[in-house]
Amino acid sequence: MSNKEIADLIFPNVMDVKEILKKYKRKEKIMVTRYAPSPTGFTHFGNIYTAFINYVIAKQNNGICFLRIEDTDQKRIVNNGIQKIIDDLKKFNIIFDEGMIDEENEIGLYGPYRQSKRKEIYQSFIKDMIIKGIAYPCFCTEQDLETIRKVQENNKEEIGYYKKYAKCRNLTNEDIKKKILNNEKYVIRFKSAGEINKKITVADLILGKIEMPENIMDIIIMKSDGLPTYHFAHVIDDYLMGTSIVIRDHNWFTSLPIHYELFKVLNFPIPQYAHIAPVLINDNGTIRKLSKRKDKEAAISYFYENGYPVDAMMIYIATIVNSNFEEWFSIKNNNNIYDFKFSLDKISKSGPLFDKEKLNNISRNYIAKMNANDLYNNLVEWAKLYDKELYNLLIKYKEKSIKILNIEREKEHPRKDYCCYKDIKSYIWFMYDELFVNPDYELKIDNKEELENILTLFINNYNDETEDIWMTQIKNICNKLGYATSNKEFKNNTNNYKGNISDIMLILRVAVTSKKITFSLYEIMKILGKKEVINRIEKFLKHIQ
RNA sequence: GGCCAGUUGGUGAAGCGGUCAACACACAUGCCUUUCACGCAUGCAUUCACGAGUUCAAAUCUCGUACUGGUCACCA
Questions:
Q1: What is the structure's pLDDT at A328?
Q2: pLDDT reported for residue A105
Q3: Which CATH code is given to the segment(s) A282-363?
Q4: N or C terminus of chain A: which is more exposed, having fewer CB within 10 Å?
């Protein structure tokens, strides 16, 4: 009985390989990269990182980047998982030239771009391999494999399904036919011709030239559900889709000998590779992979929830992709990050460390440079989803809110208080009557009479026409009550004064804002207006009784 | 355990054989100042995990040791 008969028995209705190869025209000589996630419903920070690299490298070399969905693991698929990936990427302005564009549809001539829809294509190639005798069905059960493993462990041998341990290699075609007709479950394995002590040299655009042992494993290429495993799908798809550089996660690096052998055996040219080390995190001194389970920052949604501007995220991602980006960007301030020439060989071999301080700093600078109107709009958009109370206030008091956000903003070096939208409320809440409450702590000057004197003098002479006039009024109070009118004066002649202007300011600040630390008091009062300021001071006076 | 990679200050890192080891963040001090912030100024690795070798010259090249990470599925 021939291999062909077995192949026909297993795959009676698949297309001929030649037909498929004819259908997929070779791409022009351009750079083609690809991002190939699984639709698990979770977007990891590292996913964006990897997608960005694929995208930016292609774009900057006049190439194309496509999106392929690797949904061969039926157990992990999640509803709307594809849409979620596309939406997340779109937020970061990563839009593909080819591939899936929503849950069902795709663009491009090299599809389907969803592996579950390519089942027959893989099967055609597998059928061909069976005929050629380089693939075979394997009927081993989990227990069988476990037994083999134990033997290998005892003998201190390489663990896996290979050579003499690959017992289904030796099945006769008659045996195979009998088992198949008997409805026994099976997978298809690749029959490796590799030698453990032979080396191959692999070239990686990030890691350089590296020597590795040849693959010897008869890896599974088709699972019992008829879908291919990653290794096989990768080789078929990236060949047919014309990928010229496979930029993918570092954990595939160790499987490179498998991929090399498959490419060789299928007679496909081997693409270039670039393996990206995972994003790491410093967890109390130990450095490990940014983990979905342990780190809230691993989920890209964390950054949406906290309101990090997407552009700030992009700047941060760019700095960890190529660390020389940071300096370039600080010099070229306000430049488009895509004007920077990114390169694969500058990507860290050991993986960038996720540094939240740095992200915060970048984000702080980014928000500081926004104008108040943009900030307002962004904040509204964020609050709409994540802080209803704030949202309602922002909508109700639009003009006032913009003024508040504009405090100490329109100058060469604006304040950098906010590192994300979530922060903002804690800085501005007291500006809204709905949220304002009087303080519940003691003041340095707790002499009530003195407080009253200061505050009444202030009320009686209130004038916020200009900051100078406003300041003069306060200095008048100082003079009247025996406080120094400047820090310098107070420092030089401490004994001549009962206090300093800063003491007076503190009282005013607490009375009006209930906080000891705020941005410019003058601007706060100017926005609140005379009536409200006096109202708050009167309330404060009652409060301390 | 096998295979592969990495190891530069408090942190992220640049550096790829040749003056005082970039830059950024953080921190500290001072100045400015109504508080905070912003800004400005100054300080912060006699040394690049450790040991040996090559060289006139090593953080940079070679070897060994230690540690860290990745990977060894009908998961991708």
A1: 84
A2: 93
A3: 1.10.1160
A4: C
Output the distance from A367 CA to B7 C1' rounded to whole Å. Answer: 36
Give the three-state DSSP class for A342. Answer: coil
Nearest nucleotide from residue A234 CA, by C1' atom:
B76
Nucleotide with smallest C1' distance to residue A71 CA: B76
Classify the C-alpha dihedral A73-A74-A77-A83 as positive or negative.
positive
Among protein residues, the one whose C-alpha sits closest to the C1' atom of B14 is: A324
Sites in chain A below the pLDDT cut of 70: 333-334, 441-446
Grouping H, G, I as helix, E, B as strand and the rest as coil, residue A213 is strand
Q: Supply the ipTM of this predicted assembly.
A: 0.90
Q: Residue A418 CA to B57 C1' — how many Å?
A: 50
**Does a cis peptide bond (omega within 30 degrees of 0) precede residue A257?**
no
Maximum pairwise Cα distance, chain A: 113
pLDDT at A71: 93
The separation, in Å, between residue A196 CA and nucleotide B12 C1' comes to: 40
Give the pLDDT score at A26. 75
Predicted pLDDT at A286:
76
| CATH for the A448-544 domain, from 3.40.640.10, 3.40.50.450, 1.10.10.350, 2.60.40.420 | 1.10.10.350
Joined tokens for residue A20: 């498929």
Residues of chain A with CATH 1.10.10.350: 448-544
Q: Within 7 A of a protein CB, which nucleotides of strand B?
A: 1-7, 11-15, 22-26, 32-39, 68-76
